[in-house]
Amino acid sequence: MPDxxxxxxxxxxxxxRLLAGGPARIQESLNDLKAELARSAPTGPTLPxxxxxxxxxxxxxxxxxxxxxxxxxxxxxxxxxxxxxxxLLLFFWTFPLPNILLGRFGxxxxxxxxxxxxxxxxxxxxAAWARAGLLVVLAHGLLVVGLVWxxxxx
Length: 154
Known about the structure:
Blueprint: H1 6-9, H2 12-21, H3 26-40, H4 59-62, H5 66-78, H6 82-90, H7 96-113, H8 119-153
Helix pairs in contact: 2-3, 5-6, 5-7, 5-8
């Protein structure tokens, strides 16, 4: 099968600019062509959250999620996982296993369930949850140390 003519391969207005402008405008025309092709490229199916599915392969989404690990049920509720969050809050004494699973798969679960404007917003939200979870763990640690200290003193 013969190759299609250039006018059939390139969008019309970009081809006209390329031919009319001469060598000085070739780079600009090629950049316009790349931008137009990038806009028209298929993005793949969207998830229930409206986020593109290609985000699931991003390293920021696939890495360990400290916010999910430390936040547990509250983290799940804030990311629109109502059933999971409710169960984790009711059965909080099962801490290790569900939280380890949340830490491992939490980023992907959050990307599927909660809409984010882009990956930068996703990273910012998860970093905020990680900081909040760390503060809660530190507060619990101080509370336990204080209670033990009081118990020894009394």
